[in-house]
Amino acid sequence: MAAVIGISLRGLCGLRQTVGRQVAVGTWLHSQMLSTSPISGQATGSPKIYEMRTYYVKPKAFAEFMQLTYDYIHLKADSNSKLNGYWTSDIGGLNEVTHIWEYDSYTEKMEAQKSLLQDETWVNNYRKKILKMLVKQDNLVMNPFPWFGVKPPLSIGGVYELRMYDLILGKKEQWEHRFIQGFFERCKLSEPVGVWFTEFGPINRVVMLWPYQSLDDRTKIRKEAQGLEEWVEAIRDCLPFEKKAFSKVLIPTQFSPWK
User: Fold this and answer.
1) The dihedral of CA 77, 83, 87, 93: what is its sign?
2) What residue spans of the chain are helical by DSSP H?
3) Distance between CA atoms of residues 140 and 54, nearest Å
4) Domain NIPSNAP, which positions (predicted)?
5) Contacts of 59 (CB under 8 A, 6+ apart)
6) What pTM value is reported for the model?
7) What pLDDT, in 10s, does the model give residues 60-104?
8) Residue 17 · residue 185 · CB < 8 Å
């Protein structure tokens, strides 16, 4: 993705800063598009697809639901569905679970789902039981942006912040161009495990998943990020293209591959 060099109104010094930043972004983008995603081993130019599911569980049934999931979730993984992470919601939603599944293609996803529904143990011992425990279910399918490959967290034992931004229809490219001007600078403090854009489900939605050692660690890093001029300017310039944004704090379960 070629960066478009804009002329700053801050004089020659500002122009040099803008040109330098955008050249760096263009170079970084080129290297990322040619690189391989650490988690999936595929070129980021031909990404896998990711399904994010959210289940809203009846409060009285939550403990039983989690035990059943712990006992039987491996059956879904055995059906050629790759579990990236499974979390419970701590802030921003109660009695909710969020899980992300990875597939090579839509065909693989449909075949995995068909195979799972033919598994009597899954259907009788898990699916039929947990459906009675749910208030509702949501899901969406998303693709990673080509300039950032999906990767597992660098450390284990923390919390995750799930951030979602609903964009104005037709403004994805404008938002993306401005966001990447500061994103790579922000990644020097900490990196997300993925940045996606929805394909099915709520459309025009950006999904980011940021791991932290703790909520205090998150507060510290975000405070430091406020001192990064490129990041602050990028976030400011993205605002006209966003309708709303929201976040949740997620805690990884003991059976979640991403801890």
Assistant:
1) negative
2) 12-34, 62-78, 106-117, 120-121, 128-131, 172-186, 215-225, 229-238
3) 9
4) 50-147, 160-257
5) 94, 95
6) 0.81
7) 999 999 999 999 999 998 888 999 999 999 999 999 999 999 999
8) no
